[in-house]
């Protein structure tokens, strides 16, 4: 299957899910998760019209961004950092990415704000919510999410756009739905307080239809586009 056919297949899944949920097609965007795959593979999908790519591993992603800058006639790519963030990694993230999906502490947000270069537009930010309650998962506790979001929304050089969650690794659709709806309820509560959030990053290759049913506006798809990772 060609890259164009793979991309079209995912776009059709999104379109079908939007139709079933009675939502407009343009209410959901696709983030292609390109971690562990080389820049050449990313450029193949970019040539098919996919512009937004998500990366989990900082050094790997910085290598790709550098390669892209050296690439003749390099196409524009919107880079999203979606992995866990350590304090000593905030500066290169603030320097090189347009979006960050995985902020779960005020300290990290403050560092990103302080280190965002003044010539760049505000860094677009999502707060990661730990909806599964698993200690091994990153993300702010749902009970603490509203306070964190309100604090982050006041920081300069950042623009808080919404929330992200990674649900339990389970085939139990009822459990997944409960976790997606928990994140959606926090999103709605924040908008009720006037934050005007527009992005809810939920759903991956295996569960994007359920996530769209629950209100996702951004699905993060890796293996269904790029294939299985080593």
UniProtKB/TrEMBL annotation:
The entry's keywords: Pyridoxal phosphate
Name of this chain's protein: Pyridoxal phosphate homeostasis protein
Name of a matching Pfam family: Ala_racemase_N
Organism this protein belongs to: Limnobacter thiooxidans
Top-level taxonomic group: Bacteria
Residues found modified as N6-(pyridoxal phosphate)lysine: 35
Stored InterPro entries: Ala_racemase_N, PLP-binding_barrel, PyrdxlP_homeostasis
Cofactor entry: pyridoxal 5'-phosphate
Gene Ontology molecular functions: pyridoxal phosphate binding
Described function: Pyridoxal 5'-phosphate (PLP)-binding protein, which is involved in PLP homeostasis.
Family: Belongs to the pyridoxal phosphate-binding protein YggS/PROSC family.
Domain Alanine racemase N-terminal: 11-229
